[in-house]
């Protein structure tokens, strides 16, 4: 997989496409063709390579196919090839997505989309997402609390401090979980309205016992600070879940 990522990054046109998505996420093919001096078919080929490497994800919105930067593979590259050589302050360099503009017009597009492949069954992924003993090992030391019923509350606790809360909006174990989301103890998020997080858990179409986990954060037009925190935090959560399920260790362990 890393070879695919480095191959995808080796081409200047593909790096330009990533830069374009960094500047404005969720673009259609026609939007991405304009800055590149090549045919529509040529741009499609480059986008396919980027998607196969996991560097972008796509979502159908109406008749359009929108393209999104996927920060998770970049995070893994950083952890293996950068973090052990760099100073702690370099953590700020890992995010490829642009800082959220609170006044941007999001229309009906999903906003931040992250995807990762985990060598585990969907049932194991679902358990790790709903078991407080598991979440405390990959979700910034926070344990989940919920009755796991639609319209019931969802909370994340770090010891005796509640960090986030929401309502279960939709639940289809072990395939899908949709929840509203609001931070309760992060400075700057006091005025943010609840946003939404969707977890999609799908068996890989070709690889046995491999699950694709997609996390979508949207409806944050009035929750800019929350979106910025999750933009940087969710890739780490997904990386931690993958490490825990595949190795039994926490992301911070040597």
UniProtKB/TrEMBL annotation:
Task: Supply the PROSITE patterns for this chain.
Answer: HTH_ARSR_2
InterPro entries linked to this entry: ArsR-like_HTH, ASHA1/2-like_C, HTH_ArsR_DNA-bd_dom, START-like_dom_sf, WH-like_DNA-bd_sf, WH_DNA-bd_sf
Q: Where would I find the HTH arsR-type domain in this sequence?
A: 1-89
* Xref: Gene3D superfamilies: 3.30.530.20, Winged helix-like DNA-binding domain superfamily/Winged helix DNA-binding domain
Kindly state which keywords UniProt assigns to this record, in alphabetical order: DNA-binding
Keyword presence, DNA-binding: yes
| Keyword DNA-binding annotated | yes
The record ties this protein, via NCBIfam families, to:
HTH_metalloreg (NF033788)
Q: Which PANTHER family match?
A: TRANSCRIPTIONAL REGULATORY PROTEIN (PTHR38600:SF1)
Q: Name the family the entry cites.
A: Belongs to the AHA1 family.
Protein name according to UniProt = Metalloregulator ArsR/SmtB family transcription factor
State the organism named in the record: Paenibacillus shunpengii
